[in-house]
């Protein structure tokens, strides 16, 4: 297993920069797309929610709160959406030579992670414009960010492997992401959920991540350590289990692809 992880890491250092260059090849706006995508959502949904429904932020201005949610959701949805079909699209490669197959979807996580890092910096810019001064609680954002990345990586590896055998999964994931955008406190805060729906923000790891970043970056509060630890442990176990699953079934990929 240790040797496999080393090979996977070595491949990621090659595949991630390559995929990053391919994505932005001949692109006029280049890295600006990392900010443009969540910005469009913010303009459309933000105007509707503030003007029609009077949405506000509980401990921070609504704009900063919504922007934080959008940056996280954009990373998660883009990574999962592209990674699910990654092994299928890489069939000419996976059917000819051997390499750790999980490196393909993980490369998609890495590429979108670079976009996420750029967009994440804008959270501080937006918050600063709205008069929010960072406190020592920003350190609490580190385990929260790890939670988001781990869960994204785990779901990307698992969905990519399953999609090889269940082709409908690619469409199901897109539907899941569309519905998940509204079911997750992206454009609103978890505190606005009714008591009957509050559990959605507890069992959803991305919701926990978004709320954790809002607390640490915008509200000057520490994240819910217990909830963060639980989701981080479960996500890590799922990531390891997904990699083992790929290792178990990868010999069948060539027959199906």
Tally of helical segments: 12
Low-confidence stretches: none
Distance between the termini: 25 Å
- Helicity, in percent? over 70%
Number of strands: 0
Largest sheet: none
What do the pLDDT scores average to?
A: 86
Q: Could you say which overall geometry the principal axes of the C-alpha atoms support?
A: elongated
Roughly how many Å is the radius of gyration?
19 Å
Secondary-structure-derived class = mainly alpha
Give me a quick take on this structure.
This protein is an all-alpha fold and 257 residues long. It has twelve helices and no strands.
Defining key terms:
72% helix, 257 residues, mainly alpha, elongated, 0% strand
Account of the 3D structure:
The structure is a single chain. With 257 residues, the protein is mainly alpha-helical. It has one domain. It is 72% helix and 0% strand. It contains twelve helices and no strands. Helix 3 packs antiparallel against helix 6. It is elongated, with a radius of gyration of 19 Å. 39% of the residues are buried.
